[in-house]
Design goal:
The structure holds two protein chains of two kinds. The longest helix of chain A is centred in the first third of the chain and has 14 residues, at 6-19. Chain A is mainly α. Chain A has a two-stranded antiparallel sheet. In chain A, 33% of the residues lie in helices and 5% in strands. By secondary structure, chain B is α+β, with helices and mostly antiparallel strands. Chain B is built from nine helices and 23 strands. Chain B has helices spanning 3-9, 25-36, 43-51, 149-152, 183-187, 200-207, 232-235, 287-292, 401-407, and strands at residues 98-100, 119-121, 134-139, 145-148, 158-165, 190-199, 215-220, 227-231, 240-245, 248-249, 259-261, 274-280, 295-296, 302-304, 312-317, 328-337, 343-349, 357-358, 360-361, 371-379, 384-392, 421-424, 430-433. Chain B is globular and about 70 Å long. The relative contact order of chain B is 0.14. The chains are: A mainly alpha, B alpha+beta. Chains A and B meet through helix 1, strand 1, helix 2, helix 5 and strand 4 of A and strand 3, strand 4, helix 4, helix 6 and strand 7 of B. Strand 1 of chain A pairs antiparallel with strand 4 of chain B, so a sheet runs across the interface.
Chain lengths: 183, 435
């Protein structure tokens, strides 16, 4: 039922319109759809659902330390982000804490990002840029831990996992003014 | 018509005196032809006039059969220089990452040709097979649903004209020294199309949004998996699942086969290649809505979730890099828009804001769309400072550059809607200046 060839779509729509002819209205905006989706299974949703909110809901199993992350960083990140996250050619990831209200603000993961969960989410979904979603969850936790450590936010031996990562308080956590108007 | 003359119409930032062999009268005329020509005069006519003062002659295409049919039409080869420009901020490291700019200095009217619509990609343009693409709606819904594209094409649709503006538009006018590049390269992260698609509310109703859902996460199928959080109120308002642009299926650069369209809001949120919508109780705080598309203030704080684009306008002719064709009558032409609804007024100044005159708004001012403004101008050869200032139906007025800049941190990159100034020098050169 969901595999109409394009050349029969028009026929199907015409049939639908015919059946509903008595319910047609002149409204500018259609009020309901033809209900053509299939149900999504929990398993397939899990494969695609990679977004991690500040609560950490959905963080996968796995763990990593700054030391383990250093190796991942050197192998996967350093070519673009420079040694120890200093940046160049891509964005700097480390430093700038205390600079935001100065004439030369430096906005990095450490100085600007409000949530540590975002670092896990973004690294997993979008990095490394030539081979995204290729790191294991352990590797993502580890490199996240390494960058938090380089920014002085967690200790050298701190382990990042689904429980500890959402508890990390970023230096600029309260640096944003919510203009969304959503209550 | 030869290449020299074709290029001489195109905006050029270099001073005319530094271009060898381009100071003769013919070239001088050609350089100004684009400015002098009213909208009614087609480019062929103006360029042909400028190209040669020779008497009328029978030309080869008047005598030989023209080209045969082709399945998909393209612009004239003589229009080849009219292109998007792209600075490639990451170079070869990520050649598909960054913006491309609509060349507004070469365009007229209000609809941007699909192939010239600005782009912003976060990891290139994916080559998506529509038959394999899926849209998942899940999270705080009663029925998680998967849509095929052929199913989506059967849904009732709406069409509307609206602009999309990247909130980073005009941030190239925030560098310390004004760049001498064309209008579109500075302010071309705004484009306007007719979009056709499904009201997002129809799909959300089928999934059955639960009471606790206040936000949606929208995510693309590109390899950046670009994602943004969207208040549910907008999703049930004018949000569209767009399938067509200017009458044809979306271009890959614009999100083929499915994109989100949030009229009037910063372009980054109109997620392209849309594969997933998740209903959530709060914003996901994605990378783009925290570290990037936020507006830092001088005190170190930053405004977040500044969704609507502000009231704004820019004069597209004459503009940066063009050269006036002597004194006389010109038409000042430009575009205006606002994320708040309709543009109600555009004023134009030729003396850097000391005095203003109201321009004519062409045709209907549609909500959340570009409107074209025009005003005749007699240039007497003395230096001038051209500005435009838009006002919208909410009474918002485009602010002067100085006061806008003072409101934000020195590294602000987003939502720059401040007044734009083109200086017309005594020698006719038009330059980008800060005022």
């Amino acid at each position: 039922m969901f595999t109409f060839e394009r050349n029969v779509v028009g026929v199907a729509s015409a049939a639908l319109l015919g059946a509903c002819a008595t319910q047609m209205s002149g409204s500018q905006t259609p009020s309901r759809g033809p209900d053509l989706a299939r149900a999504a299974s929990a398993q397939e949703v899990a494969v695609w659902d990679i977004s991690i909110p500040p609560s950490g809901a959905g963080l996968p199993a796995g763990t990593g330390t700054p030391k383990q992350g250093e190796a991942v960083y050197i192998a996967q990140c350093q070519a673009c982000h420079g040694p120890k996250g200093v940046g160049k050619p891509a964005d700097p990831l480390v430093g700038g804490v205390g600079s935001l209200a100065t004439a030369n603000p430096v906005r990095t993961v450490g100085s600007y990002w409000p949530y540590a969960t975002t670092l896990f989410d973004y690294t997993r979904r979008a990095m490394p840029i030539t081979n995204t979603q290729s790191l294991t969850n352990d590797e993502v936790y580890a490199v996240t831990a390494y960058l938090l450590y380089l920014n002085g936010i967690i200790g050298e031996n701190a382990e990042m996992n689904a429980k500890t990562l959402p508890q990390v308080k970023m230096p600029n956590r309260d640096g944003f003014i919510d203009m969304s108007g959503v209550k | 018509m030869d290449r020299k003359h074709r290029f001489s119409w195109a905006p050029d930032a270099r001073p005319i005196s530094k271009q060898p062999g381009r100071i003769d009268r013919r070239t001088f005329l050609a350089r100004g032809a684009g400015i002098a020509g009213a909208a009614a005069a087609g480019m062929t006519a103006t360029t042909a006039r400028a190209a040669d003062d020779a008497p009328l002659a029978i030309l080869k295409w008047m005598q030989a059969p023209g080209a045969p049919f082709r399945g998909y039409g393209m612009p004239s080869r003589f229009e080849e220089p009219v292109k998007r420009t792209f600075p490639r901020p990451y170079g070869d490291l990520a050649p598909g990452t960054g913006p491309s700019f609509t060349p507004h200095e070469a365009l007229e009217g209000t609809i941007t040709p699909s192939g010239l619509h600005f782009e912003r990609h976060h990891n290139g343009v994916p080559d998506i097979d529509s038959a394999q693409h899926r849209l998942l709606i899940h999270g705080l819904v009663r029925k998680p649903l998967v849509f095929t594209v052929s199913a989506l094409l059967r849904y009732p649709m709406v069409s509307r004209i609206c602009f999309i503006e990247c909130s980073g538009n005009s941030n190239r006018n925030l560098v310390p020294k004004p760049l001498q590049i064309p209008c579109g390269a500075l302010h071309g992260l705004i484009s306007c199309s007719e979009w056709t698609g499904i009201p997002l509310s129809l799909l959300l109703e089928e999934a059955g949004i639960e009471g606790g859902a206040k936000w949606l996460l929208a995510e693309g199928a590109d390899s950046a998996a670009m994602s943004r959080s969207i208040p549910i109120e907008k999703a049930f308002g004018d949000a569209m699942i767009a399938l067509y642009q200017n009458g044809e299926r979306l271009r890959p650069e614009q999100g083929y086969p499915v994109r989100l369209l949030l009229p009037g809001w910063e372009g980054n949120m109109s997620v392209k290649w849309l594969r997933r919508i998740k209903a959530t109780d709060g914003p996901t705080q994605t990378k783009d809505e925290t570290s990037k598309y936020t507006d830092p203030m001088p005190d170190g704080k930053a405004r977040q979730f500044t969704f609507a684009m502000e009231v704004k306008s820019v004069i597209t002719r004459p503009s940066s890099g063009m050269t006036m064709q002597g004194t006389g009558l010109y038409e000042i032409s430009g575009i205006a828009w606002t994320g708040a609804g309709r543009i109600t007024r555009v004023e134009v100044s030729t003396d850097g804001g000391a005095s203003w005159k109201e321009a004519a708004l062409q045709g209907q001012s549609l909500p959340l769309s570009l409107v074209r403004f025009r005003i005749p101008w007699e240039w007497n050869g003395v230096p001038a400072m051209l500005q435009s200032r838009a006002t919208d139906e909410k009474g918002q007025v485009q602010p002067p550059r100085k006061s806008w800049v003072a409101e934000f941190a020195p590294d602000i990159r987003f939502h720059n809607n401040s007044i734009i100034t083109w200086a017309v020098n005594a020698d006719g050169r038009v330059q980008n200046v800060y005022l």
